[in-house]
UniProtKB/TrEMBL annotation, chain A:
Signal peptide: 1-25
Species per Swiss-Prot/TrEMBL record: Acrocarpospora phusangensis
Leucine-binding protein domain segment(s): 54-410
UniProt key word Glycosyltransferase: no
Gene3D superfamilies referenced in this protein's UniProt entry, alphabetically: 3.40.50.2300
Keyword check for Signal: yes
Entries under CDD domains matching the protein: PBP1_ABC_ligand_binding-like
Record family assignment: Belongs to the leucine-binding protein family.
Protein name: Amino acid ABC transporter substrate-binding protein
Keywords: Signal
Automatic annotation (TrEMBL), chain B:
Transmembrane domains' residue ranges: 151-169, 181-214, 234-255, 283-301, 332-350, 362-392
InterPro entries, sorted: ABC_transp_permease, BCAA_transport_permease, Ig-like_fold
Pfam family, one: BPD_transp_2
This protein's name: Branched-chain amino acid ABC transporter permease
SUPFAM superfamilies: Cna protein B-type domain
Keywords per UniProt: Amino-acid transport, Cell inner membrane, Cell membrane, Membrane, Signal, Transmembrane, Transmembrane helix, Transport
Gene Ontology MF, one: L-valine transmembrane transporter activity
Provenance organism: Acrocarpospora phusangensis
Amino acid sequence: MTRIAPLGRVLAVATVASLALTACGGGEETAAPATSAPAASSSAPAAAKGDGVLTIGTLLPQTGSLAILGPPEFAGVDLAVEEINAAGGVLGKPVVKNHTDSGDTSTNIASQSVDKLLAQNADAIVGAASSGVSLSVIDKITGAGVVHFSPANTSDELTTYADKGLYFRTAPPDVLQGRVLGDLVVADGNDTVGILALQDAYGTGLADNTEKAVVSGGGEVVEKIIYDPKATDFSADVAKLKAANPKGIVLIGFAETVKVMQELIKQGLTTDKHKWYLVDGNLSNENFLEFPKGTMDGVKATLPGAAAPDAFQAKLKAINADLTDFSYSAESYDATNLIALAAEAAKSDAGVDIAAKLGEVSKGGEKCTDFKTCADLLKAGKDIDYDGVSGPVEFNDAGDPAVATIGIYQYGPDNTYDTKALEYRTGNIAG
Amino acid sequence: MRRAVIAFTAFLGGLIILLSAGAANAWAEGEGLRGTLTFQGQPVNGVKITVTTESGAPVGEATSDAKGAWEVPVPATGKYTVKLDASTLPPNAAVRGGNLTRTPSVFEGNVSTVLFALVAADGAAQPGEEPEASAESRWWTRVAQLTFEGFNLGLIIALAAMGLSLIFGTTGLTNFAHGELVTLGAVFTFFFSSVVGLPVILAGVVAVVMGGAFGYLQDRYFWGVLRGRGTGLIGMMIISIGVALFLRYAILFFFGPQSLPYNEYAGQPGIDVGPITAAPKNFIAMGIELTVLIVAGLALLKTRTGKAARAVADNPALAASSGINVDRVIRIIWTAGGAVAALAGVMLGLSQNVQYQMGQDMLLLIFAGVTLGGLGTAFGALVGALVVGLFIQLSTLWVPPELKSLGALAVLIIVLLLRPQGILGRRERIG
């Protein structure tokens, strides 16, 4: 009989241990920047000062909650590198690319991938897709004097981050997407709006920007729920939303949005009675196919980036025939081209030299739209202004694009969206 | 209510037509403000809208046209004040909430939308009054829904907790790999339905059988061997963490990181049962779960094997010397535990999605349920798990949903302080 007591103690220890383990799983990322602290003291350390070969590493999602964004982004980088090398490479040598996985914020994959890329003498790293992941490795990358160039980060936290001038992105900060999304929600006549947003830098930032736009346009945000993406279920979150009974429901998140939607459908907040809005993190042509036909009919979504022209999409299909989404492919392509052009302009492949020239090649000069033309102009000693597939790409002092385009997409009864947008809205990030 | 829904649908329909007609040219004209006025599904003609700058200088006026649309171009970006002249509204209409002023911002090259939602002005449905009158009933609806969700979640936890509790009771092993047994149930179901092509119900049955077989094999070739060697309980607990990691990443390798629903019953629309809205699959799943739990509990109390299992839990040496085949009992418990855990996975995958971390995310709640209910009792795991499930869901009435697991863990701590043996556990003499 006395056996139970010590066993009970073991189980109590086990409960506490599992708590601690769970906590570790989520928190490990924060430890990563510490390792870069020594490197940070010298502004331009070792980082392969002009080893003659431009090495571009990618840190993009092959796994994790943003894995849907991975294939088009890798394809964008692959296409650009292929074209650059076909045009003779950078500084007379072919560009080297190394692909790595960024995982998501629940894993420590990104940190290991960055270590690997730095060990391979990367001069610039394209990634990550998730703002949360980028924030967890930005110190390590910029501390090593390497350019950190994201094609898809939209959190406005990254605008003001102390990045030593090495962080750039071709995706616009969420100020603009929030503004367009809010205006869209109001224009559809939703005077009461509910927002369900993922708890991270991206989710809360975009939710705040959207709320601001909705309120300014005359709508009312009756419920704003920030949820834990690792929660066992979302029924309580949805029940809270249902009690507020909003006309428009804005879903800001990643892959877990599918679970949230199942819960919305279960509790009767369906698209025939409420208007749903998605964003770039959960816009997908694959995730909703198992739903009954018509479930997603009329759902609208916003996605930063101008239309990827048919010719560009065809070229991407040649790289990866399985692509169904093209989210951020143009941004990835432009990021790679810009890095190559900046290296060409700086006549050096060192990260700090590339960063110093990125602003210059993106604006003010003779316009050109592909690597070969731009590189020829540079070799002729001209100042260039690279206009990419994703937009004019003109960097401001923070390394953000100053002007950007947001597309508005709509789902049909077959639960997929038309990759041709309903409309595109172009605006200044600053307003 | 029905009339309101019809009116609202018609209103949205009209709006979409209006927008698609007006949008194309509106953007080209530079900055401005616009909106569409509709009342009970009909456009409202002849309403006067006045736009002034923030300081009150007049900018322009517009009157809504036959389609209810109005637009005022503005000279520059910035904040404007938009006023609606209530005297020009139809006599029975009013602006929702009574505020006739909006202060939108206009950004470069964009037209901002301003929304005045119109509602009936007569006494029966005063703006703002209707939602307040139903606020209390909405709250109770939410309580009912959350109670239902608590049982829904609690029963799934109970299934998993029962296996863990039985294995712990008979062998003393705190099995951290139990969460992965749950995941396996869902993954097997997914494999046999989506890949092999069986109907989901049949696939679920196969998954439960496979789960049982996996439990049997684990004990036959792994845990039984360790037990025979006399490995300590703490050592076995650490080994189980290793097994959990191994299984989790093996699942990740074969299944991938996505979160996928079964190919049937995904997004099954909810039906209203009294104040509760839930999908038919939820009710059926809960019925199956409850039946299995009660049958298992009774089997433990009434059958020979059940009595033998409880004897082994009390004192294995004494049980062995009184003629019980301890190893056989433990093997039956492992088989049953694995099968019931797999059933929990099948049900969890049904109400949400299949994902490689689904079991791990629930493990803490399973431990909480076991500890809370008390060890060595037939129905302890059931009661403990239901309390955990209910607390998680109902606590969201007061705490933000992202903190919902806190409630369950708080109640765990309080119960263990007051009743260290758990809710149903027998008081043991310690020392």
